[in-house]
Structure formats: C-alpha cells, structure tokens
Amino acid sequence: MADTATVPLLTSHKADPAKVPPTSIDDMIEKYIGDTGGAVQLLKAVFVAFAWAFDAQQVFISVFTDAEPQWHCVDVAGGNNSSCTPAAASPCALPPGTWAWDRPAKTSVVSEWALQCAGPALASLPASSFFAGCLVGGFVLTTLADSVLGRKKTLLLSLVSMSVAGLLTALAPNVWAYAALRFVSGFARSTVGTCTLVLSTELVGKRWRHTVSVAAFFCYTIGFLSLPLLAYALREDSWRSMYFWMVVPCLFYAALIHLLAQESPRWLLVRGHKRDAIESLRQIATLDDSGGHTTTNLSMLELELEACVSMHNEDGASSSGSGVFATLQVMWERPWAIRRLAAIMVAGFGVGMVYFGMPLTVGSLGSNLYLSTAYNALAEVPSSILSWLLIARANRRTSVVVLAASAGVLSLACAAMPQRAEAARMAGELLSFFATCTAYDVILVYSIELFPTSVRNSAVGRWCGRRWC
C-alpha cells in the first residue's frame, strides 16, 4: 500500500474501475456495490443534508429577534412635543413619554428589555455569546463524530440539544439568561453543519458527492430564506414565537433522521465495526439493485475488507483506537495534516467574517430588514449553482483566492459609498455576499477532500469553529 501522505485522498470518479485496482475502503465499496448512486439512496443523502436548513435558522435568527425596532414621536398633553424630533439618531436622549416603538415591545429583545440605551456591548452580547459557543463547540464536539459516536449519533445529539436550548431560550427572563442560552445553542449546533456534510457525502459514491454537497447548500438557502418569511408573519408577535416555530420542526426532523438515516459505512469500517458496516452496505445494495448487487458480492467484499483492515487502516489511523482525542493525535502525528489544517483555518477565518458579518449587520444599511435579509438568502441560490460548476470544473485553490479577493474589494467599496446611496450600498453588499457564499461552499468541499475518513469531521470542524472568531 502506498504511503498515505502521498496517495490522493479522493480519486476522480472518472477513473476506469476495471483498470484501477482498489487501493482504499472507498474503492473496494464501489467495486462491489457500484457508485451507491441509486435514486433512493441519493434521496436519503439529500434528506440528511436538509439539516443545514435548521442550522441556517439558528445562525441568523438573531437578525430579527435582536434587531432594534423602529420608533416614533408621540403627542404629549397640550399637543406640543418639541423635545422629540424624527431626525433624532436615538431615543435615548429623549424624555420618557415623548416617543414609542412602532410595534409592541415584545417583538424584539432590545425593546422588551430596554437595551436600546444599554450600549452596543450589551445589545450584541447574545449574538456574540452564540458565536463563542460555536467556537468552543467546534473544538470540543467535532472529535465525537470521528471517534466514539460517529456521524449519525453526533448529528442527532446536536439537533436535539440545539432544539432544547432553543425552547429554553424562548423562556429566558432577562438578557443575561438569554445570552447564556444562546451560548449553549451555539455550542450544540457547532457540529450540525460538519456532520451533515460529511455524513451525506459518505453515504453516496464519489461520483455523487458534489451533487449532494450542492444540495446541502440549497438546503441552507431554504433555511435562511424561511427566516424573513417567518419573521414577517410573526412581526406583531413576541420574539419568543420565532424560537418556538423554529424548534418544533427541527425536533420532528431529528426523529425522522433517527428512523431513516444510516451511519456512514466508511466510518464504521475505519473504526473497526465491520459487521455493522456490512449491514449498512447491504441496505444500500438493496435500495440500488439495478446493478445486480448480490449477496455473493457482499460476501466477497466482506472477505476483502477483513484482509485490508487486518493489514492496515485507511489513512493510517488505528481502527481499534478509541477515545475522544484519538483523531487529534492522528492529525498531530502527520505534518501534512497540520499544514493543510492551518491553511484551511486561515482561509475559513477570512471568508467566515464576511459570510456571517454581512447578513447580521444588513440592517445598518438603512433598507427594509425583511427584504434585505431575503435578498441575501436568495443570493445563495446562484452562488450554489456557481459553486457546483467550480467544484466540477475548476481548481479549488484558485477559485477560493479569486472569490475571496473579489468579496474583499466589494466590501470595501460598499463601506466607501455614502450613507444616502442605499440602493448602491445594498447592491455592493449583495455582490460581496454572493462571492463570499461561493468561496465558503468551495472551501467546505475542498476541506472534505483534503482529509481522510478517520479525521475528516474533526478537521472540517476545526476550520468551521475558527471561522466564528
């Protein structure tokens, strides 16, 4: 077996399997059951990818729940209210009773807890706490998917924990409890995106991985786009209602994942669970029986896998190794893994700042918050299409460099535009966000291809966690 430091981690699906002998667990699986691209199995992988919709809702819900509502001057006794003018930048300097919120105070945490005059640090504390939780969770939880729990159980744990934290957030009595619960929410959802993408792509063959990845990006867009629709429908209701209606569908989806989704056969084999892996592959072969997949094929696969695993483990990781931090040791012992991880973390840090910073501060552009957020969500649709084209045909590294540079230039141009040019600033923001979304999608797929099964979730989670800084 060739050195794992030099052999490509993912080979091209265009290679002729008859001419290329199987050199990895991936190759052996596809040799006996095909590219696992049957329609039913492909739909199951896309169903797993739909978890990204709930992930997007968790990330961007604060755009509406934590927004400062519009306010207006009110008439006082005698009909003279010269102390209040609509041109005032903030109601903080105005006497009590001379102004009021346009909507009920319960529609936002800012108005319900009177945070408009508490300073930007306190008003932004819940959002900062959420991303701090994402950062901590990205370092602590991602190893679970590669070690003791696996992809499916870690995804279920994240979805349920995230939902329970969301329900408790809806009951928060003050901003301090709210910020603490947002930290817990961020900690819990930190592995949703990585587990979803890794599991869904490992449930299909190499030929279909790009398709499933792009399907996950579209699911994220659906979740993002649902937020302004939900917020507009509940614009007169309490901000707590948004959390409730976001959590209930997620719990229902988690129950379906438990019943319908499979664990990654690749992870099962790498961790030494050969019997479970064969059973998972048997289910896949049954779903996609058009290629003549038989019990004999699976028996031959079992024998070959047993010989392969006994000689070595895929990517140099011990299949009998256990413990939460076993995958970190695997990466630490390989200089090439550390170099790749450092490079992907630096790229993810820069792209992540723009990707999450733009939608969260879109209200400062002065345009309609619901429409602005919807425009940002819709920008992800052509971004996903462009990502699919670039992933299929272009160089990953060059694509990321060009897209990131374009996003940076457009962001600077947007900041340099005058305040009164709302349309031009919004156009610049959308173009910058479009470029950033595409770069973000390409980096995600690129990072999956850079690391082997035994450490894939941990490595992807490291840069995903660092991007919250």
TrEMBL record:
Q: Which UniProt keywords apply?
A: Membrane, Phosphate transport, Symport, Transmembrane, Transmembrane helix, Transport
Q: Spell out the coiled coil positions from the record.
A: none
Checking Pfam families in the record gives:
Sugar_tr
Q: Give yes or no: UniProt keyword Transmembrane.
A: yes
Q: Which InterPro entries match?
A: MFS_dom, MFS_sugar_transport-like, MFS_trans_sf
Every copy of the Major facilitator superfamily (MFS) profile domain together lies at 41-469
The GO biological-process annotations, alphabetized, read as:
phosphate ion transport
A GO cellular-component term linked to this record: membrane
Subcellular localization is given as:
Membrane
Q: Which domain of life is it from?
A: Eukaryota
Family indicated by similarity: Belongs to the major facilitator superfamily. Phosphate:H(+) symporter (TC 2.A.1.9) family.
Official protein name in the record: H(+)/Pi cotransporter
Organism listed in the record: Zea mays
